[in-house]
Amino acid sequence: MQQICQLCLKEKTICESHIQPKFIFEWLKETSVTGYLRGAESPNMRMQDGFKQYLFCKQCEDIFGKDEKSFSEEVFKPYVNEELDDWGSATSKIKAFTHEEWLLRFVIGLQFRHLLMVDEKFVEKVGKSRYDKLRINQEIWRQYLLGERQDTGAQNRSYMILLQNLAFASGNFPPGLSPKVNSYILRATDADVTFSKDGKMGVYSKIGPIALFTTIVPKQVRGLGKAVIKKQGAFPVVQHLDDKSGILHFIMVDRPKEAMDKIDISEKQRKKIDDAYKKNEDRMDTHSVKAQISDQILADSLDANGFDESAG
Questions:
Q1: What is the pLDDT of residue 305?
Q2: For position 267, what pLDDT does the model report?
């Protein structure tokens, strides 16, 4: 297929590209009972892979692929396989992830692809001035990924928040948790452009138990200093974040409700899932099942006011 590549802006043969990285879907399938995926938009349909679009030429696809490989091998797999146990709880085995600029490039590449999915209908939600800011940042990130500039914007910051099972965590939880909060935190892939009435805006992505956020307005997020991504260094696994900005509330309360409310599986499909469970009894001790069990454990440990019973 010949068309304009959305990264180099040259007319070339275009590949079918993942919006979310392929490795996350491979992990989700490997750690599920049935070995299949289900999306919130079409929960009654099995999927073999994640959402794809024809966006980039082979040369530009390789640019994303190189950073994805580094992130998968140096951050994602060590985090889900070593730092988190089978229940998604931290083990303190890893103190920090040593990284070069590939970490920032991976995050910006992911956010850039998500912005490509935003169409002009977004103007109806937030207005033309915000939409224009998105497009300005999209162009800045495009130039950065091509090596045509050294920064990702005028002091924009990207953050990585490492999530874990709330059922075994200590401390106070915010009210209004979704009954499926652990399933969301540990298993979901997600992406959105976040915005508020007071003008704040950013790009949010989530790949399993790792959340990523890049600011547009304002340039920095208060309370997330330990989660900021630098061009190189050692990224700490223990973060102790202060949710002055509301980002953690968004990840643990607002977004799980919005995402998990979409999941409405038909009775016919529930029977198929039950049958699949019975056929795969040897896979019942999987990450996906333990995430569901953890939701029940958390529900039992909190009083009725801890959950929004209308959610999920």
A1: 46
A2: 54
